[in-house]
Design brief:
single chain, five-stranded mixed sheet, seven-stranded mixed sheet, 4 domains, Immunoglobulin-like, mainly beta, about 0% helix, 1 helix
């Protein structure tokens, strides 16, 4: 007869079973006969309890939990030591998937993303908790179904999750399929293109900003004028068209950059493009009287300038401005004479002078074919 108390042994056909399935548990005591068996089930949250009317060597269970057994025999009853614990888990049929937000096709190093573990419900509302596997995820069960982190080289890899019911820690889903994150690309640089770098008088030029590679998406564009300015342009500074395109009419050194996400992740600034205004040789002058506004009527007398070339090579252009509303004074005309004097710039034709003479005459001027315009005031 030995003084050492024997120890029961518990074995299970499998420790993970599907919902609605069951598993056979077997309890045994080595090298002796006449034993009956007591079975116990507990959880991490509850104490171990006796499973009633289960005295057989083999039992079938369909509930997850921590199981153990011991042998009994004789009167008074003799007990063996309890077996080691065996954990049985139930797997739900719900499919679990990992999703990325924002769902951009390409992620850049430094961006902040969120991975979400989604359980496809089977028609009933269940409170779940979640477990993750991955380089940047918690290793314990949590009530949060998402993890948020800033992408770096160390965050690249495979991510998986599974869920279990909060009221039954031994019933869970299977692991999701692996979600692969490869966000290790360096920060992109914005590209700025201008359809013209010279603003025409009274007009504007169009600027276009873009981010390469073209596979990236979700960008909004921010515009800046002058190198030291950190304030983005507003609708007071430019006309905003489709996302990534504006029109500007002011001179300056322009640049742009892209931004997306929350918090906003910015690209590097684009190269700068200098926009200038074009020079104008002619400026219409508007004159008003006390009664009405002037309506400009242009009479180009360029043909007369060719007949006036005999006088020191001058070329003259006339512009008349007539009051549209002045029906009683039809003969009120404002004349502007613009003279191009080549004779005074014999050394360098590129520096030829431009003269203007403006005078007001109530009487219609007499124009004689072939005669030059009145002499200019010097």
């Amino acid at each position: 007869m030995t003084s050492d108390r024997p120890r029961a042994t518990l074995t299970a056909g499998t420790t993970i079973i599907p919902v609605g399935g069951s598993v056979t548990l077997t309890c045994s005591v080595q090298s002796s006969d006449g034993w009956k068996y007591e079975w116990f089930r507990g959880t991490q949250r509850t104490a171990e309890v006796h499973i009633r009317d289960q005295q057989n060597r083999d039992i079938r269970v369909s509930q997850g939990g921590i199981y153990s057994c011991r042998g009994t025999r004789g009167n008074p009853v003799y007990y063996t030591d309890s077996s080691d614990d065996v954990t049985i888990e139930i797997t739900f049929s719900n499919k679990v998937v990992v999703k990325q937000q924002p769902n951009w096709p390409q992620i850049f190093r430094g961006e902040t993303i969120t991975l979400t573990c989604e359980v496809q419900e089977g028609g009933e509302t269940t409170e779940w908790e979640y477990e993750w596997r991955g380089p940047r995820t918690p290793t314990q069960w949590t009530h949060n179904n998402d993890v948020t982190f800033r992408v770096s080289e160390s965050s690249s890899g495979d991510y998986m999750c599974k869920s279990r019911r909060r009221d039954d820690s031994y019933s869970s889903t299977e692991w999701s399929e692996a979600f692969t994150l490869s966000g290790s690309t360096d920060k992109p640089k914005a590209k700025l293109r201008a359809d013209n770098t010279a603003v025409p008088v009274g007009g504007s030029v169009t600027l276009t900003c873009s981010v390469n590679p073209s596979s990236s998406s979700g960008w909004k564009y921010y515009w800046y004028r002058d190198e030291k300015s950190s304030e983005a342009l507003t609708t007071q500074d430019a006309v905003f068209h489709s996302n990534g395109q504006i029109s500007v009419s002011q001179e300056g050194l322009y640049r742009c950059r892209g931004g997306r996400g929350n918090p906003v992740y910015y690209t590097e600034d684009s190269q700068s493009v200098r926009i200038r205004k074009t020079d104008s040789f002619f400026t219409r002058t508007r004159s008003t009287n006390q009664s009405s506004a002037m309506n400009h009527m242009i009479k180009d007398e360029a043909q007369h300038s060719r007949h006036a070339s005999t006088l020191q090579g001058d070329a003259c252009v006339y512009e008349s401005i007539k009051d549209h509303d002045d029906t009683h004074n039809d003969d009120s005309v404002l004349y502007a004479q613009v003279s191009h004097d080549r004779a005074k710039t014999k050394k360098d034709n590129n520096d030829s002078l431009l003269y203007t003479q403006v005078y007001y005459n109530k009487a219609k001027p007499k124009r004689h074919k072939g005669k030059p315009a009145p002499a200019e005031t010097k």
